[in-house]
């Protein structure tokens, strides 16, 4: 509901992991929709809602990575860094990727489940290019 930014990726991934971890418990605690009374089905199926939210978080994760890619490509600074230091964008991206490595398994799962087509319309474009 807020503006997307690359810095929010890790909060999104934390919530995604929490929902992924709670789904087996929900499956064990809640009966299937077919087993519930018609009167009790006034509220939406919690398992469906959790899965839906998890799916939207996965889509947001892919979009955040695409936004990061776009912002890197859009940086046209040609000014050299004084004293030969590391460019601030390079430092930012390396720190970002270092932290993203802590979510390696979750990111692999997200990109498998929420592929984004590349610009030519082929499936699995940008989301699959993880650079092994």
Description:
Residues 112-132 are annotated as: Disordered. GO terms for molecular function: phosphatidylinositol-4,5-bisphosphate binding. This protein has one domain (6-124). It is elongated, with a radius of gyration of 19 Å. With 132 residues, it is mainly alpha-helical. The protein contains 4 helices and no strands.
- Helix content bin: 55-70%
Q: State the shape.
A: elongated
Task: Summarize the main sheet.
Answer: none
- By DSSP, the count of extended strands is 0
Domain Exocyst complex subunit Exo70 C-terminal: 2-120
Keywords: Exocytosis, Protein transport, Transport
GO biological process, one term: exocytosis
Organism: Canna indica (Indian-shot)
Keywords:
single chain, about 130 residues, 4 helices, elongated
List the helices and strands and how they pair.
Blueprint: H1 9-29, H2 46-74, H3 88-100, H4 104-113
Helix pairs in contact: 1-2, 2-4
């Amino acid at each position: 509901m807020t503006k997307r930014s690359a810095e929010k990726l890790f909060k999104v991934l934390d919530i995604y992991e929490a929902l992924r971890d709670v789904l087996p418990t929900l499956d064990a605690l809640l009966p299937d929709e077919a087993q519930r009374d018609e009167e009790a089905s006034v509220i939406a199926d919690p398992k469906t809602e959790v899965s839906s939210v998890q799916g939207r978080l996965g889509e947001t994760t892919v979009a955040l990575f695409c936004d990061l890619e776009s912002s890197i490509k859009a940086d046209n600074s040609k000014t050299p860094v004084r004293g030969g230091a590391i460019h601030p964008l390079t430092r930012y991206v390396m720190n970002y990727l270092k932290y993203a490595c802590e979510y390696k398994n979750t990111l692999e799962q997200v990109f498998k489940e929420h592929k984004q087509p590349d610009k030519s319309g082929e499936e699995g474009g940008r989301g699959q290019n993880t650079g092994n």
